[in-house]
């Protein structure tokens, strides 16, 4: 197999074509604006992120916003409220003396998983809440928006500067929920025989996928976040790893590739699958990626634009780790580790690393060497999930602008496939 050898240098900014990559070159991008004061810059950043949440909710009716189509997916209304609660709980409640919460019950209703904050409504029952209605959540958001902006302007620069890490965490947290709003409503719409479109004009991003392989020679490389710009705690500490020799596919696995796997009986061949994976595939009657529907006109797939014909050249999407692993075995290849992925991405060797599909790696979601979650309540953000999940790298078509990093570690359980998840292959052959 042919492939160019490359000698990756650590800490090279990725400059992939996808829009998400552009943000990676700018540290704390959401805090850069034309305002001359810190309060002004924080206000601009805050309102930009808050308005993007509402922009994503805008096409949805109050009925759409209430649906919870499975326990892992939350209603749009809940996402809008929970992200608001985050500001109320961690910024206003902690740092704005005299702030009175919008409603005394909302801390219970809209806390997600923060045990240190107190009891909370059951995750699987978020879709049971007809009240408060979508309009009340809009009022809640406006109340908190006004209080946060007032807080920014009433607070000294010295105190605000000390709160920037918390504010950035709030912005990035809300951006994560913006992606979930799309993944969750797509799951709900995909259960609907009418196949409603989130946006009839929606188009999938065009892949830039190159072909062939890039060769990573054996060497020691630094991975993990370095520098002072925003990052989640799970991206640190940066540390050195031995990777290679290995070849990574420059492009993502496509729907055409996946159809070949299906046509070869991939979903029915137990020897290709992990035991838990085959149990999931048979138990859930998987015969294709998530949201694919067999019609008289052939396979179609439910997208944010509604039901569309399969695009053979597009990256396969909505596959679980189990499916990705089986496909890799069928191909005679492997899934890369997250370390291999990051080293190759830093060297700009991967096409469509960002902005298309999250890419499964075979790396367990574990702490980097020496990692400890912080002792405050936000220490619950990432650290307590570091077991039984797999790392995904890159970003997806639903990831907000300026929310991607080469060191970003996403994570899901191996059976999950409602996220925008795909894969690229690794080859350890000669
Ligand atoms: Fe959250």
Automatic annotation (TrEMBL):
Domain Sulfatase-modifying factor enzyme-like residues, every copy: 223-350
Provide the protein name.
Sulfatase maturase
Cited InterPro entries: CTDL_fold, DinB-like, DinB/YfiT-like, EgtB, Sulfatase_Mod_Factor_Kinase, SUMF_dom, SUMF_sf
Provide a GO biological process annotation: ergothioneine biosynthetic process
Coiled-coil boundaries: none
Q: Where is the signal peptide?
A: none
Could you list this entry's UniProt keywords, alphabetically sorted. Answer: Iron, Oxidoreductase
Q: In which pathway does it act?
A: Amino-acid biosynthesis; ergothioneine biosynthesis
What PANTHER family does the record tag this protein with? HERCYNINE OXYGENASE (PTHR23150:SF36), SULFATASE MODIFYING FACTOR 1, 2 (PTHR23150)
Every DinB-like domain range: 46-177
């Amino acid at each position: 197999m042919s492939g160019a050898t490359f000698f990756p240098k650590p800490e090279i900014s990725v400059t992939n074509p996808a829009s998400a990559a552009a943000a990676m070159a700018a540290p704390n991008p959401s805090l850069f604006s034309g305002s001359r004061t810190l309060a002004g810059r924080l206000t601009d950043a805050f309102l930009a992120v808050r308005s993007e949440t509402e922009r994503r909710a805008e096409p949805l009716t109050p009925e759409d916003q209430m649906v919870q189509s499975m326990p892992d997916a939350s209603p749009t209304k809940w996402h809008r409220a929970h992200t608001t609660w985050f500001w109320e709980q961690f910024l206003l409640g902690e740092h704005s003396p005299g702030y009175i919460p919008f409603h005394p019950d909302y801390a219970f209703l809209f806390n997600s998983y923060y045990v240190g904050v107190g009891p909370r409504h059951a995750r699987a029952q978020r879709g049971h809440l007809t009240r408060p209605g979508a309009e009340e959540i809009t009022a809640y958001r406006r109340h908190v928006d006004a209080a946060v902006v007032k807080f920014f302007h009433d607070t000294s620069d010295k105190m605000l500067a000390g709160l920037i890490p918390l504010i950035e965490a709030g912005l990035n947290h809300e951006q994560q929920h913006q992606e979930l709003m799309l993944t969750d409503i797509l799951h709900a719409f995909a259960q609907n025989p009418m196949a409603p479109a989130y946006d009839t004009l929606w188009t999938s991003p065009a892949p830039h996928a190159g072909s062939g392989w890039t060769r990573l020679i054996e060497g020691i490389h630094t991975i993990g976040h370095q520098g002072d710009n925003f990052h989640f705690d799970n991206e640190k500490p940066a540390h050195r790893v031995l990777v290679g020799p290995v070849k990574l596919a420059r492009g993502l696995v496509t729907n055409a590739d996946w159809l070949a796997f299906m046509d070869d009986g991939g979903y029915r061949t137990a020897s290709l699958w992990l035991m838990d994976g085959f149990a999931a595939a048979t138990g859930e009657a998987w015969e294709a990626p998530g949201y694919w529907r067999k019609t008289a006109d052939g396979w179609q797939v439910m997208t944010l634009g509604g039901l569309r014909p399969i695009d053979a050249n597009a990256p396969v999407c909505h596959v679980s780790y189990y499916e990705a692993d089986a496909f890799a075995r069928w191909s005679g290849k492997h899934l890369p580790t997250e370390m291999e992925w990051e080293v190759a991405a830093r060297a700009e060797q991967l096409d469509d690393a960002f902005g298309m599909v999250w890419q499964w790696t075979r790396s367990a979601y574990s702490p980097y060497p020496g990692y400890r979650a912080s002792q405050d309540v936000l220490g619950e953000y990432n650290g307590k999930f570091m077991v039984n999940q797999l790392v995904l790298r890159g970003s997806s078509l639903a990831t907000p602008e300026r929310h991607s990093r080469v060191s970003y570690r996403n994570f899901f359980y191996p059976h999950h496939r409602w996220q925008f998840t795909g894969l690229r292959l690794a080859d350890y052959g000669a």
